[in-house]
Amino acid sequence: MSDDTTAQNEQTYAVQKTEDEWRAELGEERYQVLREAGTERAWTGELLDESRSGIYTCGACNAELFQAGTKFDSGCGWPSFYESVRPDAVELLEDNSLGMTRTEVRCAACGSHLGHVFPDGFGTPTGDRYCMNSLALGFTADEE
C-alpha cells in the first residue's frame, strides 16, 4: 500500500468504503488516480475543454468541488480552477513525492486524490491554480 493510500485510511471521511469497494466502483484507471494519487497524461482529459456552466464534482463520491466559473485555461494540460466551491470542500496536504514539495488536493468528503494546487494562477482573483485530473472529476452542466 502506498504512503498516500495509508494516509487516506488514517483520516476519517464522511464517505467511507474499503479499497476493494473503491476499486470495483471506479475501475482501474480512475482508481489509480483517485485512490493511489496517480496523474493522467496532460492534454488527454475529457474535461479539459469543457466550457459549459455547471459544477465539477468528485469522481469518487460526487461531492461538489468547483464551480465552472472558476475554471480557466492555464495552458498546463489539465483542468484548472482558481478556487474551490467552499474552503472546506477540499483538503490540502503537503506532498513530498517525486523529490519536490507540492500541495496535494484531496476531496474533503472521501479523501480521494484530485490533483495539486500551485501559487501560479497569474491573473486569477486568488493567484492559485488548482490543477486537477479529469479522471478525478465529474461534471454536471447547468440546465438551460
TrEMBL record:
The protein's Enzyme Commission number: 1.8.4.12
Keyword Oxidoreductase attached: yes
GO CC annotations, alphabetized: cytoplasm
Names of required cofactors: Zn(2+)
Keywords, ordered alphabetically: Metal-binding, Oxidoreductase, Zinc
Family recorded in the similarity comment: Belongs to the MsrB Met sulfoxide reductase family.
Protein name from the UniProt record: peptide-methionine (R)-S-oxide reductase
Species this chain originates from: Microcella pacifica
Gene symbol of the encoding locus: msrB
